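Changelog-adjacent note: as of this version, every example in the card shows the full chain rather than a window. The one below runs 213 residues end to end.
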Amino acid sequence: MLTVHHLGKSQSERIVWLCEELEIPYDLKCYTRDAKTILAPPEYKALHPIGAAPVITDGELLLAESGAVVEYITARYGQGRLRPDPGDADFAPFLYWFHFANGTLQAAMGRVMILNRLNLPDDNPVLGAMRRRLDLAFASVETRCGEADYLAGDALTTADIMTVFSLTTMRYFLPYDLTPFPNIRAYLARIGARPAYQRAMAKGDPGMKLLLS
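Full-length structure tokens:
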């Protein structure tokens, strides 16, 4: 049985959502962050040497890293869903946005989050450069969301599943105002209306306000 080990308010929400979109059987085990440190509890850290979310088990397999987990589940259980074929015109955009999610957007948010915690002055050149890079990442998503309903084109793919966490739940850790981005807000409204997304968030993070605007 595929088991998703979900840490609350973390990138593992991607995996719960993926399973709901694919409508595949899975066991969901939820873990709560430590109230003081806001970090994963010891029992979650013990699952994998890195101690970070997400983690899945599937029989004897133990796998971490959200991109790897998403690709594994899609390949093993997806039956061709949520991923364009290589000959499809949307394939290259799909690849770009799938890797942009953690390669650029989430990475930029993580760097700015850490730099903010150092209480650097606003005129610090490194902080300024990282904030500008983050602004450019959001601007890129805004442009793309004005071109198509979903990041790879007209249909939801795992590129969206990889990206939405950074636009929503990650803003609990790094607040970011979406007011200047009407296309992103319209995109998130489409995501929020999806029954699979609603089910995933209700199962994985019940009671959490969804930052869809």
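Structural remarks: The radius of gyration is 17 Å.
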